[in-house]
Write a structure and sequence with these properties.
There is one protein chain. This protein has 534 residues and is of the alpha+beta class. The protein has 3 domains: 1-109, Trigger factor ribosome-binding domain (Alpha-Beta Plaits), CATH 3.30.70; 151-248, Roll (Chitinase A, domain 3); 267-442, Trigger factor, C-terminal domain (Trigger factor, domain 2, Orthogonal Bundle), CATH 1.10.3120.10. 45% of the residues lie in helices and 17% in strands. It has 14 helices and 11 strands. The protein has helices spanning 21-35, 51-81, 135-149, 253-258, 264-298, 305-323, 329-338, 340-363, 370-381, 386-398, 400-422, 432-441, 472-486, 505-514, and strands spanning 2-9, 12-19, 91-94, 104-111, 125-130, 152-154, 166-175, 178-191, 213-219, 233-249, 424-429. The strands form 3 sheets. Strands 6, 7, 8, 9 and 10 form a 5-stranded antiparallel beta sheet that branches. Strands 1-2-4-3 form a 4-stranded antiparallel beta sheet. A hairpin with a 2-residue loop joins strand 1 (2-9) and strand 2. Helix 10 packs across helix 11. It starts with a strand and ends in a 20-residue tail after the last helix. The model is unreliable at 443-447 and 456-534 (pLDDT under 50). It catalyses: [protein]-peptidylproline (omega=180) = [protein]-peptidylproline (omega=0). Belongs to the FKBP-type PPIase family. Tig subfamily. Involved in protein export. Acts as a chaperone by maintaining the newly synthesized protein in an open conformation. Functions as a peptidyl-prolyl cis-trans isomerase. GO terms for molecular function: peptidyl-prolyl cis-trans isomerase activity; protein folding chaperone; ribosome binding. One of its GO terms (biological process) is protein transport.
Amino acid sequence: MQTVETLNEGLKRAYTVTITSKDIDARVEKEVAAIAPQVRMPGFRPGKVPANLVKKMHGESLQRDALNNSIQDGIQKLIADNKLRPAMQPSVELDEGFEFGKDAEVKVELEVLPEIAAPSIEGLKLERLTVEVADAQVDEAAGRIATQQGALEEHAASHKAKDGDTLTIDFVGKIDGEAFEGGSAEDVKLKIGSGQFIPGFEEQLTGVKKGDEKTITVTFPEDYSAAHLAGKEATFDITVKAILDADKPKLDDDFAKSLGLEGLDQLKELLKGQIEQEHNGLTRTYMKRKLLDQLAAAHDFDVPPSMVEAEFNQIWAQLQHEASHEEDPEAALKEMEAEKEDYRAIAVRRVRLGLLLSEIGQAHGVVVSDQEMNRLIMQAAQQYSPQDRERFVQYVRQDPMAAAQLRAPLYEDKVVDFLFEKAEITDRAVSREELEAAIEAEDGDLKPHVHGPDCDHDHDHDHGEKPKAKRAASKKKAADAEEAAAAGEAEAPAKKAPAKKAAKKDEAVAEEAVAEDKPKAKKAPAKKAAAKAE
């Protein structure tokens, strides 16, 4: 193999690699010798088929494989001999005039990672903003759960139901004076104004009091799912058993026990822990931004244009997606175009910070252990259907690029934690509102792409950063995502409190009969296991 460097400009490199026909033929002969013992052909004993016949049968495919393997080995040797660190996958182009039996001339173009002087981690100073969990916050969180669960205190017997009140009712539905199947239920909770029942049902309960009996008349929608009820007029005999005060959630041991806990104290302790996690996540977000700002200010070097372009394209695609959901998509896109260079500068900053963090991590022995990697794979597999999980696990274990992409966020977090340990940190107590305002005011980068060991530089991560004072809502969303990730909750569905015991079957049917006929939300289809890279 012969190699000639044709370009060495900045971070760009280009080479012409010549692979001789002799090398390719030698690979073919070696493969023929390897497969001949397994070839079966009429008229020959197993393993005794002549090599020339094997070559005649499989020669074309063997030549293609030999050429491809020669090129791959040639590129690896080129990289090793020249001590190159590719920024992205090299571009490889075989000479158009190539024919088997002749030398193969291959053009290889790539960008290399810059030589970065050992990043300084001395003198880092950070402020840790801490927020104490107040009892009022815990009570408010507990109250929200109680409200969602319908555990509310009763209004006085003289209270007249108004919009927003929750009623406990029994009802019997009739058509032409005869009760119809599934039209009766007991102890049903109904919030006036929720739109839970068919049009006209809830509104007629405004003004009722506890103990009232009332008959209302409603008409089922023409497009109601139950054909025997669609478009028909019906009456409902209603008994009001209680009117609950949505502003006064019922917080006691019985409520906590209904959630499967020992009592109210345990519920509050759990909620306090969750709020502390949220605060810790916000604190980490603020500290991380300040850390990245210091690193960015202290280091300046050229970054590979191809990496910047890939990062920018990811940012731009995300912005276009967000713009499509704005009230005026055209105006949002126009605003984006005006800020395009700002976003490109963000891409440069992210790539530079990612390279810095990678260099720091490698220089100081930061690694993701096999145990941590296995946990990552298992967690990621949960987003797939049970039948696809094993395929996903195998895919990640067999594809180094997929594994590197999965590893990158954890590697970044570990490098950041390492730097936190080295920094001089001072604490300052603030309110949650002050901490959130401090995060919103910052213009730091939440998600640099850390180019750790074996990284394939596939920029498939969230890009929430926006130019300063632009798209505040989107920045807040990005900060919330970072907060969730720091608290270990990223992309995980919120845990629901244990549901109350199911109502009797006939009551459930009755409640469904008067519930407004809305299409049920479709479950998002499970993501298909990633196809094996070709």
